[in-house]
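Sample pair:
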Amino acid sequence: MRYFSAVLAFVALLSASVPFTASGETMSETSLHAAATSGDVAAIEKLLSAGTAIDARDDSGATALLAATHANQVEAARALIDAGADVNAKDDIEDSPYLYAGARGHLEILKMTLAHGADLKSVNRYGGTALIPASERGHVETVRTLIDAGVDVNHVNKLHWTALLEAIILGDGGERHQKIVELLVKAGADVNLADGKGVTPLQHARAGGYKEIEAALAAAGAR
């Protein structure tokens, strides 16, 4: 009986010293995500020094680095990456700091992930590399950076679209997407690689009324 009481007292002491949230996550881990989201570098460094696990997950499976990337908190991301955070750690919907930074055009964070082991072949839940959503969303410098890093310009996602196809199908045909098409073509994008229904980039450009893109594709041998 005395032993049982001692065990209960120890468990109570442990629970008081390392509080947990409803999800089972320690409060220090919750604090690390909060500090990352708000860009509080001092708090991040203090928490890591106290032994908080750098790649601990929140309820969505996100690490603190992914939380910092969501908020485009560059200095928080830098502190975490310099301390060894995994730039390829994916959450429950298969986003990683590298993939999310590329998709959202968070260029400074993207460059940091590339310098710290970003997996250029990793894909999101749609089976696309970081280059594909970056092209769709018109992030010109991000596209340039990913091409220079060596991302496959002809990778095909689960929708049977390449970066070139997404730039045309989901783009607006404006200057940013014209430049992205130019960059992709120059980098070796296959201008005749059709979508899953056999529709080519040139045909999509014509259907969208994107004259400048149509002309650029035709000049590159598109049919």
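The CA atoms of residues 31 and 64 lie 9 Å apart.
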